[in-house]
UniProtKB/TrEMBL annotation, chains A, B:
Alphabetical list of InterPro entries matching this protein: LysR_HTH_N, LysR_subst-bd, WH-like_DNA-bd_sf, WH_DNA-bd_sf
Alphabetized PROSITE patterns for the sequence: HTH_LYSR
Family: Belongs to the LysR transcriptional regulatory family.
Protein name (record): DNA-binding transcriptional LysR family regulator
Domain HTH lysR-type positions: 22-74
Keywords: DNA-binding, Transcription, Transcription regulation
Tree of life domain: Bacteria
Organism of this sequence: Thermocatellispora tengchongensis
Location of the region described as Disordered in the Swiss-Prot/TrEMBL record: 313-339
Amino acid sequence: MTYESDSADPHERVAARLAPGLALLAAIRETQHVTRAAELLGVPQPTVSRRLAALGETVGTPLVVPDGRGVRLTRAGHLVADAAARALTVLAAGAREAHEEIDPESGRVVLGFLHLLGRSLVPSLVRGYRERNPRARFTLVQGARDEMLHRLAAGELDLVLVAPPPPPGDPALAAAPLARQELVVTLPASHPLAGRATIAAAELAGEDLVTLERGYGLRQITDELCAAAGFRPRIAFEGQETETIRGLVTAGLGVALLPRSSPPPDPALVAEIPMSPPVFRTIGLCWRAAERLTPAVRACRDFILAESPDLAPEFLPLGPRPSPALVPDGMAPDEEDEK
Amino acid sequence: MTYESDSADPHERVAARLAPGLALLAAIRETQHVTRAAELLGVPQPTVSRRLAALGETVGTPLVVPDGRGVRLTRAGHLVADAAARALTVLAAGAREAHEEIDPESGRVVLGFLHLLGRSLVPSLVRGYRERNPRARFTLVQGARDEMLHRLAAGELDLVLVAPPPPPGDPALAAAPLARQELVVTLPASHPLAGRATIAAAELAGEDLVTLERGYGLRQITDELCAAAGFRPRIAFEGQETETIRGLVTAGLGVALLPRSSPPPDPALVAEIPMSPPVFRTIGLCWRAAERLTPAVRACRDFILAESPDLAPEFLPLGPRPSPALVPDGMAPDEEDEK
DNA sequence: TCCGACTCATACGTCATGGTATGAATTCTG
DNA sequence: CAGAATTCATACCATGACGTATGAGTCGGA
């Protein structure tokens, strides 16, 4: 019943058996006194006596010897007690790191988001959150929607901002909508449709389209829109950045379905025409539903859910449209902290 | 019942509670796999599951989360597991040091001895022992007899060579005689007694004596010799080194009771006259009887007891005289390894 | 798509560890 | 010098942890 195979190094084995006594050894080292060490640790004195003897047994020689009516450490005892103190320091540093990692005040949040959101939404959110928690740390990762969701599920990311949010079917991911963004047909000023007030989806059937690559939310929306209108889109170019797409459109290489350009574009070069009926994409915040989030991540999530309307003025409020809450019932933001 | 007051630093507290899981965390870190870690540690798999959960509880967040049909470490888990691996390395290094300290092949022996014995006896013993155990390490400490015995009892020294050995009355110290050394009256060549064949103790009554300070064995023997002869010695000078004493004698400042000079002195300067009856001092090896000696110390002690006659040719064999064994019965060199 | 292999978590019974009470040894004090 | 106080070790008993058996969930293959 006394398992002790561990690693190749025999000293690692005794180290593993010494490990439970780390605090005890450190206390003995500090006090040179069994009773004192016991009350320092908050354990009864006989426990210290026994475990000291047991530790000495595993080392192969007593760690303390009677000295008067007290005890003193043997040389071997000094060596292991010193090592224990060092090991405890190392471990405490690790505990501190871990604590800071999860503490809402100082914890880290790995936030993934779409390239386009890095312009204003994410900076606002980060700045707002750090006003409340100045020591909070962020790791920011940008990428395509599907990549973000995949890395979120894989645990690499804590929170992601994507559009559209994942369907509620997946029990591993939870999501909540944050804001809407109107998508408009972006086309060269010279294009025949450039003067229109609105454009219907079907009117894009014959156009060369410039889109993001598969995996991006905008691409998915574009594809679905075309499918709903009953035609297969003719993709002229694919890119990874909306700015690239916009550049291609400006160069006259096609038309694109994009969010409105934030400083409105030069009307002499590019026109942005709303769709009819209008098309929106919903930006949602996602997190892993299955596991318990760290306090830091939870605090950040709740902050984003509560404050994003105020912090992202250039986005539209959710409005009446977009569906009932996408948040699975059992995992609503406020009620998972039970137990 | 769940004690956990420890040190001021709260992180030290969680470190102490993390300590028993060091090996487990290291194994998880290495394998990223509960079952694999369990068989690496040689413990059943449920134990690993439970203790991982418990460790996560103390840290405040799970250290592993389900990932497919396996698990993966959370960020906090990585931090504490890394720290655990480092701590285990530190602890293993300490265990190695302690092992080397007590191992007969590489262990350390702190050997105390009288200044005079550093000339040939101790170097011979050390050299001889290291021929058998090349990695053995010695720390050599020189000093007066009483100081040596006191520091031996205090645990600072492992073995001491002193003359005379301590009386068998003290149960804390054990001793065994090693060799005898004749003490002779050392006096200036110009002294009236310089031509004598032998000198009786009583004849020193009127002389200026040069001795070592109190606490040295030679001083004690000198004092007792004078007391036995019925006079109080007239101490002209006290020193700490026999060579100093010899110098004072050469300078004509008194006579002294000293071991024979090892290269015989210049007869034109100093005479060495045996006492009548002859006086010897017994050099003994002492160790602590109460505690269990480390294998290294025990091996060295047994080596010295067995080999010193051959290694110290300039000393006299024990001869018939010096008392029955001074070794307490229960602690004879060979039979304490019971239990 | 269903089955099988595999991995991790939970349930229950046993045993080792820890807590309480007490004893042996030593030092300090009157 | 003797009693008292202190300190560490041992004995007994209860609680919590471990080990065994089993279940829930997930991935690869037919």
